[in-house]
Amino acid sequence: MNKEVILRLTKYRRLLYKLKNLGLEKVFSNNLSDPIGISSALVRKDFSLLDITGQKRGGYEIEDLIEKLDSILGRDKTKNVIIIGCGRIGSALLEYEGFKTENIKILAAFDRDPKIINSNANIPILNTSEIKSFAESNDIEVAIIAVPDIEAKEIFEELKKSGIRGFLNFAPIELRCSSECTGVDCPVKCVIHNVNIGLELEHIFYQLKFREEPHDE
C-alpha cells in the first residue's frame, strides 16, 4: 500500500468519526470524496482494494468502515511514542491533545538539559542517556526527533541502536538510516519522515509566486 493511499485512508477515517459524532450511521462515497477533493470513484476503488464493500443504494455502514480502517491503519491499538528534545517544538508536541484522538500516547520525552529533566511530570522528561533502556523496556517503535541539527545524527544513531525503526524528524537536517538507504528502499526497514519547516514554507511561497505570474497558454 503506497503513501498516497494510506494518507487517503487516514482522511476517510477522520471524516467518518466526525460524521459518526453528528449522529449519522451510513455514508456514501461522495460524502467522503467531496471534503477531501477527490472523485467518489477513487474512494470506491480504495475500498475495493481492501475488500470493503457497500450497497449501491444503501452506502456504507459508518461503524463498519471505522472498525475496518482502524484495523488496517493499526489504530485499534495504542501506539507508544517518545520525543527527543524539549525545546519549542518538542514542548509544543508534549502539550498537543490531538494525539489522544489518534490513539497515540507519548510515554516520555528526553533532553540533555538538567534544568528541563523532570521524571515526576505527567509525561516524564528524562535524560537522553536513558533512551536505550527506556525504549527497550517499553517496546518503543517510533520516536519524534526535535533537536538541533548538530545533535540530530547522533541521536538518530542512538535511537536505531535502541531498536526504534520509525522516525518523525523535525531537525533541520535530512536523516537516512545508512549510506545504502534511498529513503524508499531501506536495508534495515526504517521509516523516516523528515519535516523541514523552513523548506515547507519556502515551497508555499514558491507556489504562491508561481500562481501569481502570467503563463503562456
Describe the structure using short key phrases.
alpha/beta, about 220 residues, six-stranded parallel β-sheet, two-stranded antiparallel ribbon, about 45% helix, Rossmann fold, globular, 2 domains, 8 strands, Arc Repressor Mutant, subunit A
Question: Would you kindly provide a brief summary of this structure?
Answer:
The chain has 217 residues and is of the alpha/beta class. The chain has helices at residues 3-21, 29-36, 40-49, 62-72, 88-95, 98-101, 131-137, 149-161, 197-212, and strands at 26-27, 60-61, 79-84, 104-111, 125-127, 142-145, 166-169, 191-194.
Report on the structure:
The chain folds into two domains: 3-72, Winged helix-like DNA-binding domain superfamily/Winged helix DNA-binding domain (Arc Repressor Mutant, subunit A, Orthogonal Bundle), CATH 1.10.10; 79-200, NAD(P)-binding Rossmann-like Domain (Rossmann fold), CATH 3.40.50. It has nine helices and eight strands. The protein has helices spanning 3-21, 29-36, 40-49, 62-72, 88-95, 98-101, 131-137, 149-161, 197-212; strands at 26-27, 60-61, 79-84, 104-111, 125-127, 142-145, 166-169, 191-194. The strands form two sheets. It has a six-stranded parallel β-sheet, sandwiched between helices. It has a two-stranded antiparallel sheet with strand order 1-2. Strand 6 (142-145), helix 8 and strand 7 (166-169) form a beta-alpha-beta unit. Helix 1 runs antiparallel to helix 4. The two termini are 37 Å apart.
